[in-house]
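Deliverable D5.2: sample structural annotation.
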Amino acid sequence: DWSRFAAVAASEGRFRPPVHLVMPNHFRAVQIAWDHASQMGSRRIGLMIFDMPEALDFHDRRAAYLDLQLRVPVSRRLPVFAVDPEAAGTERPRVLQIIDASIRRYRPDMILGFNSAFPWLLKDAGWRMPEQVGFINLWKTNPEPAWPGLRLSPDEVGRRAVDWVDSLLRAGERGPPDHPGTMEIEM
C-alpha cells in the first residue's frame, strides 16, 4: 500500500517501481564516450551491455549507440554486443566463446560498456586490453582509474532524489503518482 508514502527511486534497476525516478542520462553518456573514443582515434566502436530489455536504461543506451552507428560508413557499423547476465555467471565458457567470436568477426578497436565485469569478460575471452581492444567504462563507481570512463554522478542522483521526496512531503503528496516523472542528471 503506497498511499501513505512519498517515494522517489534513485537510479534505475531491472524493474521500475510506480514512483518518480532520478537517474543518470545514459543516452548522453554514450554520446560523450563515443566522441572521446573518436577523438582518440577509434574508428570501430562497439557497445557491450547486459541484455535486459525490461530495464529502463537499456533502451537509452542502445538508442544512443544505434543513432551514432548511423553516422559512420556502413563498413564500420557494429551491432550491440548484448550479454545475457545470467549466462555470464552460469554458462561463462559459452559466453566467453560468443564474445571471442564477436570480437573476431566485427573487429572493434574500442568497446563502450556499462559494467566493470565487461573488461574481465573480454580478458577472459583472450583479448589484451588496450593493445587489442580498448574499453571505456560508462558506469564507474569510484574514481580509481582501472579503466577510463565516466562517473555518472551517483551523489547528485541521490541528492536530487532526496530533494524530490522532500518536496513531495512538503506538498502533502503521497502514494504512487498518476504520471511518474523522470529526472535525468548530466555527468
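Annotation notes: The first helix runs from residue 26 to 39. The chain has a mean pLDDT of 90.
The annotation will be released with the project's public dataset once the embargo ends.
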